[in-house]
Write a structure and sequence with these properties.
Layout (H helix, E strand, L loop, with lengths): L7 E4 L7 E4 L7 E7 L1 H5 L8 H5 L1 H18 L26 H5 L4 E4 L2 E5 L6 H5 L10 H17 L11 H9 L2 H8 L1 H28 L7 E4 L8 H19 L2 E4 L9 H5 L4 E6 L5 H7 L4 E5 L2 H6 L2 H15 L2 E8 L5 H18 L3
Parallel strand pairs: 3-10, 6-7, 7-8, 8-9, 9-10
Antiparallel strand pairs: 1-2, 4-5
Helix pairs in contact: 7-9, 9-10, 12-14, 14-15
């Protein structure tokens, strides 16, 4: 492994979308990371995941304590939601604004829900608006300044500011600002795309640096960036390489290490360009990907398999075992990310899945 090279692992805080955190180097060969939707928690806890949850850190703290206690009661002895770690300091940052912060900074109306993550209003920028777009001034931006005020409260409460904001990726945020038209722009107006992408890149990196500087002053040092390429399968590998990869390359250079999230899609067509990005500390993908090739091309990267909540709920345990055996043989060592589990998945199925991963890890007998 190259000097200074770092790995990240998947991390799902209670009721938050999946993020990444630093690896310790002692992770299990087949490491499950389990996450539940806000609706899963709301079925038993009186928590409103609406606007107050995202803007009131004191209210959020009470809900985090309640969710951690619920997880400890239902899944004792596990690492779900970080319950294996001490209750103080608490992570009160991860999940705030869901994946909508960048869009919100650009003035998109955020739609909150009592039992779900926030979403963005489907009202999109016109051609002229994109052509004249400029990055907002974060010093005067209401939603960003609200986030910074919350950091002050978190530090007073916890002593430091743990956690991660979901900054998404250039294409993800572009779709939130431009809608489906962004995919036509890639063919018809690459210069328009470039202006939008440049603005988003500037806002992302400016915001990330400010957030991480503030966290560092509190004693929390975060030295990597995650890019969420959830929509990469909507563009060709050629379009990714020519129009989007330059921004991932520049994002990687901010901290020298980058984590790349692809959701549960087939990431195989993008392996070649991804392999040209230096120091990819984490990469995830779906079962349809060429897992053996991924391990060959990213030997120093912590790999992760995104196992869908539908597979976890609907497949038999024998089918799930076959999936996990294949993943271990072709892809391990790796994380198994079972995120977005909803209320229709029995606790017994989740526990059995964790036990299965543990059995396979022990049998493989290596880290």
């Amino acid at each position: 492994m190259a000097s200074g090279f770092k790995q990240q692992i998947s991390y799902i805080a209670p009721a938050a979308p999946a993020r990444r955190r630093k690896a310790t180097g002692q992770e299990a060969f087949l490491r499950p990371e389990i996450g539940f939707t806000p609706a899963w928690f709301r079925q038993t806890l009186d928590i409103d995941f609406g606007k107050r949850w995202h803007t009131d850190a004191a209210y959020r703290r009470g809900t985090v304590v309640a969710m951690r206690n619920e997880l400890k009661k239902r899944f004792p002895g596990t690492e779900i939601g970080g319950i294996d770690r001490p209750d103080e300091p608490l992570d009160l940052l991860t999940g705030v604004y869901g994946g909508s912060l960048v869009a919100g900074i650009y003035g998109v109306n955020i739609i909150y829900a009592e039992n779900n993550w926030p979403n963005c209003e489907h009202r999109y920028l016109s051609d002229d608006q994109v052509d004249n777009l400029e990055p907002p001034d974060l010093d005067r931006n209401e939603i960003f300044q609200d986030l910074m005020r919350q950091l002050d409260w978190i530090e007073r409460s916890e002593g430091c500011i743990e956690g991660f904001i979901n900054w998404q990726g250039v294409l993800n945020s572009a779709q939130r600002l431009r809608g489906e038209q962004i995919f036509m722009d890639l063919f018809d107006s690459p210069s328009r795309c470039a202006r939008l992408f440049e603005c988003i890149y500037t806002t992302m990196t400016d915001g990330i640096k400010r957030l991480h500087d503030r966290q560092r002053k509190s004693g929390v040092d975060i030295d990597f960036i995650t890019v969420s390429n959830c929509l990469v399968n909507m563009v060709s590998p050629k379009q990714y390489r020519e129009l989007l990869m330059p921004y991932d390359l520049r994002i990687q250079q901010v901290y020298d290490t980058i984590a790349v999230h692809n959701c549960a899609w087939n990431a195989t067509p993008y392996f070649e360009p991804y392999s040209e990005i230096a120091n990819v500390g984490y990469i995830d993908m779906g079962l349809d990907s060429d897992l053996a090739r991924a391990r060959e091309m990213f030997p120093e990267t912590r790999r992760a398999l995104m196992y869908t909540p539908m597979d976890l709920t609907n497949k038999s345990m024998d089918q799930i075992r076959l999936d996990m055996e294949r993943v271990a043989d072709e892809f391990g060592p790796c994380d198994i990310v079972a995120a977005d589990i909803d209320a229709d998945t029995p606790d017994e199925r989740v526990s059995a899945f964790i036990e299965l991963c543990d059995q396979i890890s022990k049998r493989k007998g290596k880290k």
